[in-house]
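Lecture 7 notes. Example A: sequence first, then its structure tokens.
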Amino acid sequence: MKHFYIWALLLSLFAAKLSAQQDAQFTQYLFNKLYFNPAYAGNKCMFCATANYRKQWLGLNGAPTTANLTAHGTVLNDKLGLGLAVANDQIGLTQLWNVEGSYAYRIQMPKDAALSIGLRTSVNFMRFRWADADATQVMDNTIATSNNNKTYPNFGVGLYYETPKYFVGLSIPHLFQTKIDFRENNTSALEARLQRHYFIMGGGILNINKQVKFYPSAMMKFTANAPLSVDFNANFIFLDKFWAGAGYRLNNSVHALIQYAFAPNFKMGFSYDYATTRLQNYNSGTLEVSLEYCVAPRTDRLHNPRFF
């Protein structure tokens, strides 16, 4: 029999009538806002592509592994933002692919502020690898005899408001609470329902001196019948190139992160999470890597870095 913790993780996500957090999480959410909020599409008024990879709970087989690629920019004189995202999330015997298109209408406000209203359309492909499971007894009818695939659409909405000094965002990336039935010929009782997640994020820039900036931020995630998830981060930015910071995820973990701008349009970030729960006894932490590359219009040489 394969390791028991695969089934523990599996059941925690897909048990009948499940009401738990299902959207992937990223410690470097500041560098991956489009994943959480469609209204962020085109926010930098240039074309930007971002890649994120997260390996959670190192050393624990079947633990979540998430890869995400986003690209976004503006058209119509920066009034309309367009974004595309592809994500792959694996946990236990399940694999999920998301393909998402985001659209944001940008309203210019006084004092260089902007309000964006976003809409997202998505197609989700879920695969359940029954063939990789080992039954605890011969001819276990609760386990299907072949892999199971499901495809379902969804929609999301978001708001994003930004000034030169701070930002705040509110989003529901997936509105439909789709029922997913994994039963094969009514032999398996495994049934799940996607839950609607609500995200609120915000942060701001404080100039300490000409060389150092302080960037506090927070993100809150809420879904019914699951504990509230809140990330608090405190980052320092040196010479507009090097980020260093630390954070805390409520009742979950502490983390440290760094980011370096090799050029104004190319950045790389790393983060490490350490669990503060009993799970710390069974893994070696969580690693996350991010890359961002932006192409500015010819009239903008990226002399002024964009932090939001």
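Example B, a different protein, same format:
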Amino acid sequence: MKKLFENKIVCRTLIAVISLYVLIAFVKLPPINGDEQSMFSEMVYGTAWKPFVYRTLLPTTVRLVSGVIPEEIHNSLTEKFESNHSLVLVLEKLKWESEFITEYLIAMVLMYFSLLGFVYVFRKLFDEIYSSHLWFKNLISVILLLAIPAMFQPNYSNYVYDFPALFLFTLGLLLLRQRKWNYFLVIFLISCFNKETTILLTLIFAIHFYKKDEVTRKFYYKFITFQLIIFAAVKILLFILFKNNPGGFVEFHLIDRNYLLFNGYSLTTFVVLLIIFLTIFSRWNEKPKFLKDALWIAIPLVILTFLLGFFDELRDFYEVFPVIILLISLNIARILGVEFKVIKD
């Protein structure tokens, strides 16, 4: 196994192929066009329901790229798909409209590179926190990718902004760890146009750097203020741009499906959750402080999920996903007997 994961070409090919599999699974089950309030074409052209339309980074990028492609190419692609029986079947399976095939293909490319970017940034963050063998980092990268489809659920839709959220939030974590404040603010701004949970990066900064001598009190409060101003400005802008769209600023789902929580749960669910919980918190004293501080965002995520989402919709926890994988990496290293060192913050 070591030799396999030490080979650069093999690992890069493996990550590229698994990423492609994850992307196909992402758009297939459930389809990204499965929610009537956030239909793909309506997201791209800004007519979807609020609050989904606020997550506009990738949809707007798709619209801009599509806008510079000549109409002849749009028509040619549509005709090619509509005239091929096999391609028609693919469109039916995915619930894609043939007239927007150009936009779908652009979105697929952007989502694929977002996924690859997520893995790349995760590996950089791994190197900032741990010192270990290359083969082990490659192994964790593969585990990271293979774990993502476990959060795809047939009862819920996947959304075009999910992979960009994984990429941008993890990049924000990396920049916080590296103390690259100016770059962080730029990514924070961009990420605010993708998903409002970007504000959780502010919470991580507030917790982790609260008692850091390297950060003065003046800078600490100023940096938090900058983030809050950016977040508020983006939210106000999006509110104005989409004020005439149907829907509300947020969606409350406290009752909805959450009442099913009282129906009990299976033994398998209990065992899986118990293993994850024990793995995260075992050897707690050895775990990096940065990751332990970042894990605090799980609390507001759970609360927000109960109020504004559904308790069993796992995609609501994407922001804490890389933190959890990094935390359990230490345990996996100990089990495998891998030479592993935590880099002090």
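Note on Example B: The chain has a mean pLDDT of 91. The chain has 16 helices and two strands.
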